[in-house]
């Protein structure tokens, strides 16, 4: 079960939002005005407090479907990237330092030998021909996402940025979103890490076959996620939904994260009110999910690196919007 409670997600404070909007009416600040009001509403107070404890949480996992040969990235790439993040040398670390945020990496299901209480599996099933995970792995992933959200919020995070890491994650995002939105594989598939026409065909076929496997099950989102999602995606859904339930603003990054927010909203209505779209990536699944959530991205720099990097590039705008209202 993805969420412990059946209680609805409470909305951000509309009075704080109204006070914020009234305070700078006619200021010419445009969307910065609205962004600052969103922060005030999430905090439930006007003027809003500065955002000083922003936290990036990268959920990492490999995907069996990537072994179909649809990526230009070599085997072991995700593990190497995770090691870079752990040493502080990843792109996300650099952008986090520049934006005044901190980074946590959660190895949910990378394809290597590892142990720990944050570990669910070694990679995941190839979703075009087999289930991504067992029911037990699904429950572990959901519990992990909720627990990590609670840990970060309890330790003082005032805004969270969920990130993703793993070869094949855009394929999973496209298959899951395509299944729920009834979008044809050719319309939801994207460039991923940068692929040739031949690799694009392989990717489309894998997404098509995965979607076919769950064609009659879309009324049961958790089963669809277990069959053609991935442990890291399930953890992301639970993390975003729990953050919203804990009244903590969420800044979204790319395709997999935004698809996770789309699913969290479907399972826990009201989640999207706590989310802001940091960026727009080149992935069609990303745009489709943003449109379904009725969110407009703050920036569009064609960033497709994952890890929360696109959201981090937009974080200074969110911080500035809050401080404009507080000044």
UniProtKB/TrEMBL annotation:
One of its GO terms (molecular function) is nicotinate-nucleotide-dimethylbenzimidazole phosphoribosyltransferase activity. InterPro entries: Nict_dMeBzImd_PRibTrfase, Nict_dMeBzImd_PRibTrfase_sf. The keyword Glycosyltransferase applies. The keyword Glycosyltransferase applies. It holds the Pfam family DBI_PRT. Keywords: Glycosyltransferase, Transferase. It is an enzyme of class 2 (transferase). NCBIfam families: PRK00105.1. This is Nicotinate-nucleotide--dimethylbenzimidazole phosphoribosyltransferase. It comes from Corynebacterium comes.
